[in-house]
Amino acid sequence: MDAAVLQYWLQGVLLGLAYLAPIGMQNLYVMNTALRMGPLRTYQVAGITTAFDISLALSCFFGVGLLLEKVPALINVMLLVGCLALAYFGIRMITSKPATDREVNVSEPLLKVTLACFAVTWLNPQAVLDGTMLLGSMRASLPTDMAAAFIVGVVTASCLWFGGLATVTRVFKSALDDRVMRGINVLCGIIIILYGLKLGYELVQAVF
Fold first, then answer.
1. Which residues form the domain of 172?
2. What is this structure's pTM?
3. What domain count does the chain have?
4. Helix 74-95 and helix 178-207, axial crossing angle in degrees, nearest 10
């Protein structure tokens, strides 16, 4: 693999993991399933959640990417919005309390669980907005020929995250307390803020 392609793929993986790791409804479905159901249902739910997450990521990335190709003047606007949005997301991750005490019903038929996974991903305005701001702003900062490597990295992160989350939850059920989850949130928040600073630096370079 070319060194530049590998670099942008790794950036996509890192950003994807940092974005997915803070505890939210998608993660809760996977974690509650792993805690209460058998391995078959656990990995079914993890796979369904991954598929919906990837579909949303692709839509956010290429939808905004197409707009930027049509209107290049928006690139600096997206860099500014992305810088501010990522800083906000990072601070929110650091200061928020993990929602590990929330429960979801994972014993329903698989079709209902599938519809629920779809709802918390595609029918959640905050998830759509966050994804658009995060991936759209990153799209504005990427070289055209490296966009594919970056989004493949994000897709890779989604597959690794939900599959890994299901496995780790099953293996280390007793160790996943609020303190551990809080540490994950803080670490991921710092990573997101660093990406925001990167976009800000690129905006300054583009303007001055």
1. 3-207
2. 0.73
3. 1
4. 160
